[in-house]
Structures are given as structure tokens and as C-alpha cells.
Amino acid sequence: MGHIGRLKEQYRDLADRLQAGPVALAEPADPAAWEGWREILEILYTPEEAALAARMPVKPLSLERLSARVGVPAGELRPRLDAMADKGLVMDLVHPRTGRTAWLLSPPVVGFFEYSLMRARDSIPKKRMAEALHAYTHGDEAFARDAFGGETTIGRALVHETALAEDPLPEVLDWQRASAVVGEARSWAVSLCYCRHKAEHLGQACGAPVESCLSLNGGADFVTRRKFGRAVGRSEALEILARSREQGLVQIADNVRNRPTFVCNCCGCCCEQLQGANRWGLAAVNPSGFAPRREAAACSGCSRCARACPVAAIEMVPERQAGRQKNGLAPSIDLERCIGCGVCAGACHKGALRMEAGGAPRPVPENGVERMVRMAVERGRLADLLFDEGEGLGSRFLHRAVKALTALPPAARLLASEQVKSRFVRAAIGGFRG
Q1: 283 CB-near residues (< 8 Å, 6+ apart)
Q2: C-alpha span between 430 and 434 (Å, rounded)
Q3: pLDDT at 279 over 90
Q4: Could you report the per-residue pLDDT of 88-114, keeping only the tens digit for each?
Q5: How far, in Å, CA of 187 to CA of 142, rounded?
Q6: CA neighbor of 17 nearest in space, from 106, 130, 109
Q7: CATH 3.30.70.3270 residue ranges in the chain?
Q8: What is the arithmetic mean of pLDDT over 215-240?
Q9: Is domain 290-357 given the CATH code 3.30.70.3270 in the classification?
Q10: Fold of domain 2-140
């Protein structure tokens, strides 16, 4: 775009690199949003870090392979990577059994956006960063459309289990239940909520708890190791979950079925994912697979449910009532917009709303690799993901990527084949069927 010439020279390659990932730091058209986009880069990365980040992979690489890729000796590269990981610009993934470390470039989300404001104090100017992020994400729809505008989203709603109908009791799979997602993790951490911390610096705080963002498994290990949050045990993590549910917050998990890395406790006013729906009209969060069911006889028409809904999916409409001259009010639920979180049912003091299986859910990827492949296909970046500037695929990633490709529906497999003019990928897509 025309703005790119105004970036400092050392940030041009980084900007291109960050626009090639499954979730891109898309360049906006609006001038004020573009200034916020530029400032985000210059606040977070020194010129030297920008040059190194521009060569970083989007898939994990060992220090030795990364050293060969960027042309920096491993002994010199390691402290530079450590310093960037402390800022959340790169991620170090430590295998829980072997202890081997792999490195990759952090995406904007879930990545360096959140890490920039997960700590109360560090070298990043918080207010200036919050203002730059707000200008970028709220002044132009480019980022929201890229991050949240595809069929495969970053997060998925988890239904409030206390709001589930008892008769008939719906079948709820473990990966659909927040208590199981959190309770069955192997490690936990809690951090400041990036969205509410940003709102505080903008003078728009809503009053919901700020220390409420749960990281799980490998995500918790990274957050704890790099001091973006504090380690907690299973019981405290479950207490945070229950408390957040009582406070009417939406529980949004990593959009995968296996080994999720986060559960956020979100509000419709601050949450960037929910703002994708509220501000830009996007289906920004994968629905839970549940929907509200109203018991008309118990409903008083008080509108608590409509006021509590975090995505404004409930409208109070006139309803004729027997024996009354004036209309009453009743909730009308837009099931296409509803994310199935159950906040409305929790807000109802009459017990007139319960959650049952339904709504408009979309497929949930098996794991992070499948989600990454799906997002890359939908955004036209499959070649960038698979070939990553000439970097060969590791055998484990290759196996998972091929499995994810073959799991795509026929139309998406055809789209993937068109994106990557490769005999191997076409053979993989056409030859595997299960």
C-alpha cells in the first residue's frame, strides 16, 4: 500500500513478514489507524530486533537451525532471542519431556498484542501502546477482518455450564466444557487481561477483574517462564473460572479440541474478539454449540438478558399477552449472531432461559496445526505457511499439516491445491482420505 514507504527502512521487511502469517498484522487504509500500526512496530521492536524478527519462522525451529537460517552464531543469537521472548516478540517452546527448545515468531494474536499489556510494569510505555493499539484495531477494519473474518476463528465460546437445561440434559463433550478444558490441563497461569488493561489506559475501564486471563499447558509454561503472569494450581484456576462466570463474563477458549492454550474471561465492552462482532459485524467467535431456550410462562420481559448479551444478539420485542390490554416484552434471539455463551441465562432472575444444544456452530479444529492450516487456506496464505521462505518442514509438522489438509472439506481442498502449485501438496490432498 502507499503508506509503506513512510516506514523506517529497517521495519519494511518486518511489516511484510507479519502480513504473511495465518493471522496477519494487516496494513490499514485509514491514516490514523496506519499511524497506530506503524507505532506498534516501533514501540515493540528495536531496529535490530525488527531485522531479526523479519527472518524468524512461523513454525518452531531449533536454535541450531534458526542460527543457520538467520546467519547469526548460536552463542550470539540465544541472548538476543531471550531478550525478545521477554517482550513476547518471539516464543520459546520447551518440550515438557525432552527439555528441547524451539523458537518461532509471535503472531499479533494470540501473541505480542496480549504480551505487550499482560504485565503492569516493564519497559514498554503502556499508555502509548494502548493508544496505538486502539487506533489500529478500532480505526480500520483491516485487522479485524483478517483475524476474525474467516470461517476458522482464533477463539470459541464455552457455554456456562450452570445455564444448561436439565430436562432434557444436553450432551456436552469435554472440550465444550470450561471446567474440563481447565481442569484437565497439565499447567496453569493467570495474567492481566490485555483488553481490560488497554481499556484502563484509555480511561474506558468497565470494572470487571483485570487479572482473569488463564493460560494453559504450553501457553502457561511460556507465560510463567517469561513472567507475563503467575503460575497457579488447578483449584485456583477453576475458582477464577467460576468467579468469572458469576460476574457475567464470556468464557472464550483456544479454538481447538486438543491441548488448548488459553481460556479468556471476556466482557463485550473491552474484548477485542467480541468487538469483532460488536464493532465490525463479524462472526468473530466460534459459537459454543448451544443456544438459549425461553420458558415463556416464566419470562417477565424485564430485558436483563438483552442488556447482558455480550454481542447484542437479543432484542426485546412487543408480545401480545392474554388478558392484558398493553403488549408485554419478550426476548427475540438472533441465533446467527448468538455465540451460545449462556451469559443471558445467568442474568435472568426468573429462570426463564436455559441453554440447550443448538445455534450455528462451525467446525472446531483438532489441534493448533489444523487451525493454522485452515486459517492459512481461508486467507490465501497456505504457501507462506508450508514453505516459509524456503525453510523445510519438520517431519512432525509435515505429518500434522498433511492430516489437516486431508481433513478439509472438498471445496477447501481444491482451494488449497490452487494456492500451492506443488505436486506434493496436490498428491497429499488427493491421496489421503481419513
Answers
A1: 148, 153, 277, 362
A2: 11
A3: yes
A4: 999 999 988 888 999 999 999 999 999
A5: 35
A6: 106
A7: 290-357
A8: 97
A9: yes
A10: Arc Repressor Mutant, subunit A (1.10.10)
Per-residue pLDDT at 401 exceeds 80: no
Q: Within a 10 A sphere around the Cβ of 349, how many other Cβ atoms?
A: 9
Residue 122 banded pLDDT, cuts 50, 70, 90: confident
Contact 204, 218 (CB under 8 A): no
Quote the CA–CA distance of 303 and 412 in Å, as a whole number: 42
Burial 139-174 (b: 16+ CB within 10 A, else e): bbbbbbbbbbbbebbbbbbbbbbebbbeeeebebee
Grid cell digits, residue 160: 456456562
Residue 83 and residue 42 in contact, taking contact as beta carbons nearer than 8 Å: no
CATH 1.10.10 residue ranges of the chain are 2-140
Show the cell assigned to 433. 482420505
As a whole number of angstroms, the distance between CA 34 and CA 308 comes to: 34
